[in-house]
Design a protein that fits this description.
This protein is of the alpha/beta class. The protein has eleven helices and ten strands.
Length: about 280
């Protein structure tokens, strides 16, 4: 099953548009695990076990593991998710952006070492930085398009003077992703939840691509506005434009006590319900 099919299956089975981001910070771990990098796997696995029937994807952020020399724990975590929630796709949040043989090695890392179903990429070196990942049949590539950080406007929101109708950079990228760059049919885009009007614009330009939308929860993105702007349904009820709404810190650190996993489940359940109500 390719990434897009797996995503659609998980969304139907778990009735969910929610993705839980796995960004482990040992300084925020509960109880005796606090400040213990050796417990990264244990913490993340407990979150996975508590939320696996509520999500459409999990998204481990590689830097949170690599900074603590915990790549081996990330490998164990990926295997754990595959074992306990085989229907849920795993997005490796790596934001790689190199070209040539280096990009080939990054693709090998994501899809062979970690067995990810999709990976986030920074496409600002052009198609050369995307193509090596598209050689893996069925694997997803999720391109940064219109991110929610304030500095994103420095480049993404600027107009291209030498292109007809002068689209903004993020609009041009969305059109490329929907069109000539989508050579394996598994391309998606990242659009921040703090810009719902721009989610709608990306959806207009990329009507069928899945959109990964971070920023709901601790970053203040509005669930209802996000769903309205990004999700599209055909007349027959089929979803023609899926959204993957990510929440990380609000779920992971819902409690600093021994009940952290059950608290994470409650927040994930509430977020899933809020997103579903907005449909």
């Amino acid at each position: 099953m390719n990434f897009t099919d797996q995503l659609q299956h998980a969304q139907r089975q778990n009735d969910s548009m929610l993705c839980v981001g796995l960004d482990p910070e040992p300084s925020r771990f509960p109880g005796v695990w606090k400040d213990q990098p050796a417990r990264i796997y244990d913490f993340c696995a407990a979150i996975v076990d508590a939320t696996k029937d509520l999500v459409c994807a999990f998204k481990p952020q590689i830097a949170y593991f690599a900074a603590h020399r915990a790549e081996d724990q990330l490998e164990r975590l990926m295997a754990h998710i595959k074992r306990v929630a085989p229907q849920v796709p795993i997005i490796l949040d790596a934001k790689r952006g190199d070209i040539g043989s280096t990009a080939e090695q990054y693709a090998r890392e994501a899809f062979e070492r970690y067995q990810a179903d999709a990976v986030t990429l920074s496409p600002f070196m052009g198609f050369d930085s995307v193509e090596p990942y598209l050689r893996y049949p069925g694997k997803g590539v999720i391109l940064l398009c219109r991110t929610s950080n304030p500095g994103g406007s420095d480049l993404q929101n600027q107009r291209l003077a030498d292109v007809p109708r002068q689209p903004r950079v993020y609009e041009h990228l969305a059109a490329l992703a929907q069109g000539p760059w989508n050579t394996n049919g598994q391309v998606a885009l990242v659009v921040g939840a703090t810009f719902p009007e721009e989610i709608a614009r990306v959806r207009e330009l990329a009507p069928t691509l899945p959109l990964l939308i971070p920023g709901v929860g601790a970053q203040g993105g509005d669930a209802a506005a996000t769903v309205k702007a990004g999700r599209r349904v055909a007349a027959d009820g089929s979803v023609t434009g899926a959204i993957i709404v990510n929440s990380s810190r609000a779920v992971l650190y819902a409690s600093a006590g021994d009940d952290f996993a059950s608290a994470a489940r409650r927040v994930a359940l509430d977020t899933r319900q809020a997103l579903n109500a907005a449909r």
